[in-house]
């Protein structure tokens, strides 16, 4: 299942416009906050499909049976670009456990790249919903590698993937690899460049959030 959050016009359209706009991208705090906001909306939508349980609470006047999330999810992201989107999801699903993956594109002299994954830490995800935040779903290669390793930590009841901007090719690649996944994206762009970057996209989400990095 794919849900494009901007298909029905809302504030998400404004936040995505601001993420893309080169005249606004030098405001790192605003860029991070808009990523967070998209994560918050995705978390709200995901919560509607989580397993429920009935609990009893006590109000100042009476006891009341209410519904609550039955099993808290595990939220994960790929460092470092995914942190603001991840934080937005965690802002709403604030009882969740968390995991982190360090993965990056390693470019050769011809600017072709392979995916290198150096680090993963994650709680047991067996029998729990798993949410993976990746702000830019381009080719899908790094996300597939991350999910493959995450699934070594258990079998989740649900798999959710959240991206602010995705390429059409990236979405189809993820659907082929994980047909059970529910994909939540802010917007889908049709094109990838020859170097595997989303076009029109927004640039490098990690650099725009935290500053340019040295390539080593």
Explain what this protein looks like in three dimensions.
This protein has helices spanning 11-20, 28-47, 83-92, 141-150, 168-177, 205-210, and strands at residues 2-4, 52-58, 63-69, 74-79, 97-107, 113-121, 129-133, 136-137, 158-167, 182-189, 191-192, 198-199. By secondary structure, it is α/β, with parallel strands linked by helices. The protein has a single domain (2-50, 69-210), classed as 3-Layer(aba) Sandwich (Rossmann fold). Strands 1, 4, 5, 6, 7, 8, 9 and 10 form an eight-stranded mixed β-sheet that branches. α1 (11-20) packs antiparallel against α2 (28-47) and α2 packs across α3 (83-92). The longest helix has 20 residues, at 28-47. The radius of gyration is 18 Å and the shape is globular.
């Amino acid at each position: 299942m794919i849900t494009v959050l901007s298909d029905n016009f809302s504030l998400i359209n404004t936040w995505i416009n601001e993420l893309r706009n080169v005249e606004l991208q030098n405001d790192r705090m605003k860029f991070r906050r808009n990523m967070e906001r998209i994560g918050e909306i995705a978390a709200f939508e995901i919560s509607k499909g989580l397993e429920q349980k009935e609990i009893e609470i006590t109000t100042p006047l009476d006891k009341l049976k209410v519904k609550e999330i039955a099993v808290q999810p595990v939220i994960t992201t790929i460092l470092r670009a995914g942190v603001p989107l991840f934080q937005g999801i965690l802002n709403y699903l604030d009882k969740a456990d968390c995991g982190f993956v360090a993965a990056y594109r390693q470019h050769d002299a011809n600017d072709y790249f392979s995916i290198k994954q150096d680090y993963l830490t994650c709680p047991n995800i067996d029998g729990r919903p798993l949410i993976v935040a990746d702000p830019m779903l381009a080719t899908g290669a790094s996300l597939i590698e991350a999910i493959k390793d995450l699934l070594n930590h258990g079998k989740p009841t649900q798999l959710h993937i959240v991206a602010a901007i995705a390429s059409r090719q990236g979405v189809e690649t993820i659907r082929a690899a994980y047909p059970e996944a529910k994909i939540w994206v802010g917007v889908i762009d049709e094109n990838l460049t020859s170097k595997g970057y989303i076009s029109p996209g927004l640039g490098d989400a990690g650099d725009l959030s935290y500053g340019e990095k040295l390539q080593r």
